[in-house]
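Suppose a colleague, Dr. K., hands you the sequence of a protein chain of 237 amino acids and asks what its three-dimensional shape might be. Before reaching for any lab equipment, you can write down a predicted structure in token form. Begin with the sequence itself:
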Amino acid sequence: SSPRRSHKPVKITLLGGFSLSVRGQDVPEWKLERRSVKPMLEYLVLRGGGVKRFQVVEQIWPDCDYVQGFNRAYQTTSALRSLIGDAGDDRLNLIVANRMSGEIAVDMSIVDCDVTEFREMAREAVDSEDAVRSLECARAAERLYGGDLYVPPSDATGFIEATRMELRGLYADAMVEGSAAALALGHDRTAVRLAENAVTMDNMRKDAVTALVRALKACGRDAEASRQRRAFEDRTV
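The predicted structure, expressed as tokens, is then:
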């Protein structure tokens, strides 16, 4: 199973770094660095599209009073709209600000984000009772996870860091379940690779080490399996 292809016009990558493209055209990094565009866009996307303006201020400009912070949020919103226009499509309304409700939102119906797809694949890898489907989704999650979630310089509330840790745990979960599914289907080397991913992500997880030991034994690598078990026992003493 490959990650699904999306025809949405805006693509945002947050795993392993930050990138923004509009209809296939990448927005230059130097433009993304202006007016806190990256932290604001990431925060809105990870919050599911929209939040109150005061929450944006507390996340990105914690040293500002709300009046000054609201002005900065407005300026950043304008900068984002300009970026979309400069990328060749000024008809797209990526950011929607409602002065009456005090909300700022991203129109997620036009956005494809790797975090969203990764979560879908990883959760299905964990939840599926079908070994074939679990393995397919684990492989897709493996491909989608290009690295840890991008954490901007401004993360005053700690929301992004908490999300980063959640995604790391979800990745390890998917790798453990995918390894078990691969082993059940006779794909022993794939089982080793996925279990190694889980251990690399968190070498204190007993289920990850257990999955790796089982996969190594299935491949006839008993000595290595024993070393992995002893190393884990040493770490947890």
